[in-house]
Amino acid sequence: MRTAIVTGAAGGIGEATAQDLARWGWRVFGFDLRAGESTLLPSDLAGFGGSVEPIRVDVTDRAAVEAAVAAVLATTGGTLDAVVANAGIRVAGVFEETPFAQIRRLFEVNLGGAMHVTRAALPALRATEGSRVVVVSSVGGLSALPGLAAYCGSKWAVEGWAESLAHELHPLGVGVAIVEPASVRTGLWDRGAVHGDPDGPYAPLVESVEVGDDRAWARALDPASVSATMVAVTEGRRGLRHPVGLTARARFAARGIVPAGVQRRIISRLTHQAPSMASPRNPDGVIIVTGCSSGFGLDITVELARRGRRVAATMRDLARRGPLDAALAEAGVADRVEVLRMDVTDPASIDEAFAQADRWVELAGDVGRIVGLVNNAGVVSVGPFEELPPAEVGRVIETNLLGTLAVTHAALPRMRPHGGRIVCVSSSSGFGGLPTWSAYAASKWGVEGFAESLAFEVGPHGIDVALVEPGAFPTGIWRDDSWHGYPGGPYAALAEAMADADRRAAELGGDPTVVARAVAGCFSGGLVGGRPWTRRPVGRGAWLRWAARGVVPFGIQRRIVARMLG
Ligand SMILES: NC(=O)c1ccc[n+]([C@@H]2O[C@H](COP(=O)([O-])OP(=O)(O)OC[C@H]3O[C@@H](n4cnc5c(N)ncnc54)[C@H](OP(=O)(O)O)[C@@H]3O)[C@@H](O)[C@H]2O)c1
Predict the structure, then answer these.
(1) From the CB of 315, is ligand 1 less than 6 Å away?
(2) What are the angstrom distances between the C-alpha of 70 and each of 2, 79, 116?
(3) For labelling, which of 4, 45, 298, 429 has a CA lying 20 to 30 Å from the CA of 365?
C-alpha cells in the first residue's frame, strides 16, 4: 500500500487531501497539532482500502517532527511514497502594526514546517521509487498581495525552496510539485484576524483587507476541489507548479510576463487600495544600511556618501569597521557616515541602533530623520538540502529574510510620517531555484514576495520599495565554509559540479561596485515617474534569470541546468 505523510491534516485542504488519498487506497499519516479532531469516521473509508492515521505533532518542532517521521517509517518498513507539506497559517493586515512574534510564527509554520518534515522524510523518499514531495503554496506565492506582506513572503520563500529542491531531487527519482490554490474556504481565514488599527494611519488598508477577505470568502473554493489536484500531483501528475482556481491561474500566467509595477497597479485597482504617492527624495535625512563591514554594504555606504547622502552604516561587529573607515577616508566622505552596531538577527541590537537614530532627530531635527533603508546584510550557505545542517538553514533564513523583515518593521514607524525609500538587496537567486541553493533561494524569494507586497501598504505613505538583484560578484560572502554536503553522499556529483560553477561565476562576476551604484541610484531623482524600479537585476547572469522567470517552463530550465552541470 502506498504511504503518505500529510501535514495540517485535521482541517481544510490537508484533511480533504488525506481523506481523498485514503479513498484512492493510500495509507495516510496525518500530522497535526489537533490530530484526532477530524470529522472522518472509519466507516467513511470502508471499502476503499486506505486509511488516515492521525499523529499529534507541531510541525515547527523539528525534533518532534523527526520522531514522528521515524515512528511512521517504523510501521512502513522504511519506505514512504509521498510527503504533502500542507500545514500553514495566515497573518493578514498591516505589516508595521503586526506584532513581530506573529510574523516569526508564520514563517516557522509555513516555511520551517515544510522544511522539517521534508528533511526528515528525504532518506525514505529517496529509497522509494517514484516518490513525491508536494508543497502547498498559495496564490500569494505567485504574486504580491496587499495586507499580506509577511504571508506572501512566507509563500514565496516556500516556492523558491521547493524549486531548488526540484532540481536536486529529480536525478534521484523524487518528484516535487507545488500546489497554489486561490482562496479556499477553510479555517485558515477564521483564525487570522486582520492586524491593524481601523482608525490608525493604515485605516484604508485595514478596511480594504477586511472587505477583500469577505469577498474572497464568498467566492472561495471548496477544499474538496483543491484536493482533486493534490491527489493528482501526489499520484504523479507532471509539472512543478499547479495553480488551482481562476485567480491563481491568472497570476501564474502573469508571472514574469506582466512587470511587477503593472501588476501592482492592476491589483491595487481590483482591491481598492489607496493611491500610492511618489516617495520624496528627502536629500537631508539619513539612510540606514545593514551589513556594512564588507562587500556591497561597504561599497553602498561609500557610494551614498559620495553622492552627498548621510548614512548610518551598521554592522554586527564594530571591531570589523577598519576597511569601511579606510574606504571612507580615501573617498574623503567620513564626515557623512555614522557607524553603528546592528546584528539583524538580534532584536535588542536593532532597537538600540534605531534608538540612536531617534536621538539624531532630537538633536538635529529633519536632518536626523531616517529617510531610507538598505537591507543588505546577508549570508550564504549552500549544499543539498538534505545534507545542509539545519542550523545553517536557520542562519540563512534568520539573517537574509527575517533580518530584513525585522529591520524594516523597526524602520517603518520612523519613515512613514515623511516618506522615504526602502531597498532590499535580493539576488538573482530570487528569480529561480538552483540545486544546492534551497535555503538561500528561500530567503531571497521570501524577501521578494515581502517587498513587493509591502509596496502596496507603504506606497500611500510616500514610501517606495525597490529590489536590487545582483548575480554572482566576488565579495566576502563566498567563504570556504559556505559549502556543505557529504563527499560520498547521494548528491556528491551534483553538489561538486554546482560548487565549481558557483566559484567560476563569482570569479567572473566583475566589479561589485556596480551593485552599489544601482542601490544608490534608487535614492536619486528616480527612474520611472520620479520613482525607483521595483526590480533591478545587476549583472548578465541576473538579467538572464530575470528574463527566464515565469517564461521558460521549469522543465526546460531544469534540463538546461542539468546539462550545464554535466
Ligand atoms: N556577492 C554576491 O555574489 C551576491 C549576489 C547576490 C546577492 N548578494 C547579497 O548581497 C548582500 C551583501 O553580500 P556581499 O556579497 O556584500 O557579502 P559580504 O561581503 O559577506 O557582506 C555581507 C555583510 O552582511 C553582514 N552580516 C552577516 N550577518 C549579519 C547579521 N546577522 N547582522 C548584520 N550584518 C550581518 C556581514 O557582516 P560580518 O562581516 O560581520 O559577517 C557583511 O557585512 C547579501 O544580502 C547577499 O545575499 C550577494
Answers:
(1) yes
(2) 17, 11, 13
(3) 298
